[in-house]
Every structure is written in C-alpha cells, then in structure tokens.
Amino acid sequence: MEIKYRKEIEGLRALAIIGVLFYHVEFFLNNYKIFSGGFLGVDIFFVISGYLISKIILNELHNKNNLNLKYFYFRRVRRIFPALYLMIIVSIIFGWFYLTPENFKEFSNSIIASIFLYSNYFFFLEGLNYNAESSFLKPLLHTWSLAVEEQFYIIFPIFLVSIWKLRNNFNIIIISFLVLFVLSLLTTFNNISFSFYSSTSRFWELLAGTLLVFIEKKNLITNYKNYLSNLGIILIIISYLIFDNQTIHPSYLTLIPVFGTCLIILFINKNQILYRLLTNNIAAKIGIWSYSLYLWHYPIFAIARNRGKALSDYDKLELIILTFVLSIISYYFFEKPIRKLNYIKSKLLFSSIFILSATFVIFNIYSIKNNGFENRVHVILKNLSRENLWEKMNDHKGVCFDRVNSFCNFNNGFSNSIILIGDSHAEVISSNLYEQIQQKYNFISINRGGCIYLPGVKKTYQNGNEYHNCTTESKLEIEKIINKTKNSFIVIFGYFKLHFNESRGWNYQVQDNISVEESFKKSLLNILNNKNNNKVVLVYPVPTLPYDITKKIMNEVPKLSFKASDFLEKNPYMTSYESYINQNKAVFEIFNSLKHENLIKVYPEEIFCDKVKLNMCFAHKGKKFYYSDSNHLSYEGTKLLNKLILERIISKN
Description:
Oligomer: single chain
Largest sheet: 6 strands, mixed
Number of helices: 27
C-alpha cells in the first residue's frame, strides 16, 4: 500500500479554511452574512484528517504488519504542539494589554484546557454557545476542534490496530460509523450544545474519512464518475451559503458537507476543471498554510474585538492580512522546520514542550488566583471585575441565580413580600434590592439566565427541546408562589428586547394562537386581576450601550487616577436617548398599553438619562460606573435603580 501526495486535498483544506475565516470575520452583503455556514469548514477538516491519518496507519500496518504507536504519537505532537504553543505565547502578550481581568482569567483557564486537550469540554462546561456573539471574544475557542482531533488520534490507532487482522474489519468500521452517527443525533436531540463540542458526536465525521481509505484499499470504486466530485463541491458550497446559526448542527444535515467532501476525495480526477481549481498554486498554498491560518485567525480577531471597538470592513481586511502574514511566518520559520527535525533533535523539542507546558500551568494558575492579574488595570475596572453580582445572592442551598425550583425565599416574618422575577438583568439588582428592603419585606428571588416571565409561552431550542431553565415545571412552581402570595409586590424586570426576538437561537410556542407579546400582557393582567391584591412593579428596560464598558475602560481610561478623572470628564461614556427608545420601541409599546390600578411602572430613564437638555443616557458619573458590560448594571447602577423601585413601591403601599 502506497501513500501518494494528493495536491487536490490541499485545495480542499483551502476551501475549508476560507469558509471558517469568512464565518468568523463576519462580512455582510445587504445584511446577508457571506458564508453563513462557513463553520462547516471544520467538518471538512475532520473528514480530511480522518482520511489522511487512517491512510498513514493502514499503510504502516500493511507494510510492517505493526504500528509504532510511540512514533505515531511523536509525529502528532511534533505536528500540533509547537505552532499551538507559539500562538498561545503571542496571545498571552497581546491579551495582557487588551483583556479585562475577568476575560484574562477565562483565557488562562482555556490555555490549560488547550494544552491538556480537553478544551472542547471546557467550553461546553463554561456554557459557551459557539454561535453566540460572546464566543467571538474568546481567543482560544477554536481549539475545541483541535481537542476533538487529538482525542481521536489517541483512541483511533489502538482501535484500528485491534481490528486490523480481523476479516470483517471494514464492516466493523461501517458499524462504528453508523453507531457514532446515531449517537450524535441522539445527543443533539437531548443537548445540542454538548453535541456540538463532544468528541463522541464528531468522531463519525473522522470515521467517514477512514471509510474512504477502506473503499480505496478494496478497490470498490472502479469507474470514476466526474459528476460525483462536481456534486461534492456543489454540496459544500450550498452548505456554506444556506447553513447558518439557526441550523441544527451536528445533525443529519451535517451529512451534506461531509458527503460532499467524501465525493471529492473519492471521485476527483486530473481531467476535471475542479481538479485544476483545487490544485492551482494559490489554493495549494492556502491549503499548506491552513493549520497556521486556523491557529492564528481566531485569537487575532478575538483580541481585536476585545478592544471594545466595532470592527469596520477595513479593519477586518487589515486583520485578515495580519492573519496571513503571521501564518506564513509561523509556517516557514517555525512549523515547517520543526516538522523536519530528526528523532534525536526532537527529543530536545519534547523537553522544551514539557518545560513550556509546566510554565503555562504555573503562570495560568497564578493568573486565576489573582483574578486575571487585576493589578495591571485601572482600579475602576478592578472593582467592576470583582463584583460578580450573579453570585452574590445565596441561601443555604447555594447561589440563587438560575434555579428552576426551590427558589430563594428570605422570609423575615413580615406580612408583605417583594418577589423579583426576571433574567440576569434582574439577578444583578437582587442582592442590593434585598439589602435595601430586608427590614421591611420578605424577599423571594426568581431569576433565570435567558428566561423572563412568560408562563403561557413554551421556549425551546432550535432542535425543539425545552429551554433548560424555562421549563414548564419551573413556570408552574412560579405560578404557585404567586398564587399563594397576598398583598405583595411582584417586580418584573429583564432584557425584554432580547427575549421578544426569536432570531437569538430559540423558538416560542404560544398558547391560544396569540403573539409572545400578547401572552406576556395576558400573564401580567392575570396577576393584577387576581383577588390576592398583589401589585405588579413593571420595570422598563435600562438603556444599553453600543459597546462593553469594561473594554472601553481597559483600552482607553488612563491608569493614573487624576488622569482618569480628567479623561472621563472630557470624554464621558454615553448613548443617545433616541437610540434607547428606538431599540426598545416594541417593548415600550407593550408596556405602555398596560393599564391597571395595581400596576406600578418604573422608568430607568429617569435616573440614567437626560432627555431634556442633552438627549443622552449616561454610563457613569465621574468614576462611578453604572454598567458592568454593555447592558448589565454594576453595583453602582443597581443602587440607583433599586432606590427608584422602592420609591414607587412605598408610594403605593
């Protein structure tokens, strides 16, 4: 069995990395994201990797009837780690200057996960949605796919060696492929986020490449059909153009780009235009650089976005050029020379990798313990990063936030209660609200991330599963609490403009064929018309900023206090009142239409905006910042809002 260099596979790699680049760079044409399914380039890489690694292993088994596992793993480490470590070192240097303490701490955790090859599960446990806007700010998120491949490389050679001498080894590969594919579908149905990152949901794609090697080995393809490889490229391009963030993935739909890649590898021949396209010098070079391009593109764009500045198309082009420059330098002066090292010199390389790994671990553990080296930033940002308002509200069972039942109930023996119901926007105000009311009311905190008060609405993921913390059981529990409560105040607060938007990765199923907005109004009126004489305190949305304020502080505010005061006085952070109104127009229309004697309305604009003289909303007053990001209030902001809420409650009591 002979391994022949196939230049067209470099072209396939180029096609894969171009898709990934366009997806992460985010170019738009008339509000249409170019290559909205470009993330499927990773799936193409999986098939190619499975094909090539299987060919290498089967070639050695065929020629030597044995596989030198030690040398196999040695080559994998030599191929992957040096370039990866170089990228991490450079990312640390730039991250030091541009990442906030909280982000640097997360970055440090992700470095440890990357070097120990479990970053796919790390990012899942972090609750990170790959398609979310926040994911583009994580410099090492892309290493999840490297972790999947390396996990495959650890397990697969042992598996292949164990079945090599069996007569029905091809059938075992087919069965393994089918079992893993079905397992992937079941995992996606139950937990789409876990399925995206999980190696068990991705191994079938690498095994698809293995199947191709067995098909070639057994000469099962005797008549090359040109149109089949052309069909393959059509399937890939269609996937790039039609798939988007809403597509359920991985799923049976993932078969489209995977099958397309398989068709090209199996059926392409030198007489085709497609072959000439994939083997031209530009495509081949990009394919050769593809690993370096994949390594460098993500941290470059993530760190640029962490500067708090929206990237223009011109900025993006500059960053793409920088990505290519660094990738080419990395390939020719680092990656390629190291891959050519002989076994003796490579021992020194392995010693260096071991020492560097230990250094990474020590450095990043120290970073985590010191909250992302918080002393390197301005004291304003240092204080904001320490607030952790989502974790401040606790009872004997732990953190109150994001529970689906057993909600925190601080019964202080008073006849009246305040019940706070909302999402993370409500949670950040909860601890200070309790501080201000604990000598006057009982307090119940019911706040769940991404979940507002919509009892008549079933919120589901794109795959149809119920949203994890917006379950029917959770809603029934809340209804029981409300129905038992009398002569009390139910505070409703949240990021409503987000929740009334179904393009965010979820769906709504509404009872009685009414809109989500009408269902919300109906739910509030049910409380107001109840004989328990409860009052609803409806808090209007707070203004949102067009940027993350912590990144602005990190990259713009001078570290010296007297210079910071002078800078903030001359360059106050604010957003237009008109923008605030326009962004929340639909929400305001719903809220304004609600009228009832037991309805209390709270308008945050009264404290955060000057709509008479300046027509602006403010992010701070001097060095007291009201926000911890672009839309969540800081402790200073919560104190102001809670004071306003309680003033309205007292006036009605």
